[in-house]
Fold:
Amino acid sequence: MNLSISRKFIVLCGLLLLLLALFLGETALLRAVAVQRAEIEKELRIQELTLRRQVLGKARLVERYKQALVELERYPMGEPGDLVTLFANIEGELAKNGLVVDAIRPVGLDPATLTATTEITFRGNFFSVLRTMADWRNGMQPMRLSTLFIRSESKPETPGGVAAKAVLVSKIKAEQEGGK
Structure:
C-alpha cells in the first residue's frame, strides 16, 4: 500500500484539522466550565454572606437571651414550698413590715395545679400593707394576690391604720398533695 504524497498530505491535514477541532472544542468546553464555576462561586459567596449575617443575628439573639437570664437571676424565685413554708413566708413578710396578723387559714389545695389558696387577715399602716404586697410579689416563693379587702381602722394610736383581708395563691410541692 503505497500512498502518494498528496494523499499523505490530505491525511495529515485531516489529522491536524481533527486535532485543531478537538483543541477548540476543549477550549470552548473549558471556557463554559469556567463561566459556570464563576457563577457557582458567586452564588456561594452570596450564600456565605447571607449565612454569616444569619449567624451574627442568632449570636446577637443568644447574647440578648443570656443578658435576659442574668437580669432574671436578679429577682429571687424560689422553688415551690410546702404549706408550712408558705405560711412562714407570708407571716414573715407581714412581720417585717410591722403588720399584725389576726389569722392565717388555708382555703383550698388544688391537686391538679398544685396551688394552695390562703386567706390572711391583718392590721397595720396602709403603706406597710402596700410594701407587703410588693414583698409578696417579689419574695422567695412566688405568690399571686387573688383578692384584697382593705378598710380603714379609726384608732388614735394607729393613724392611717387599716384592717385588711387578702387571699393569696401559691405553688406548693407535689408531695404535699393529699396529705403526704
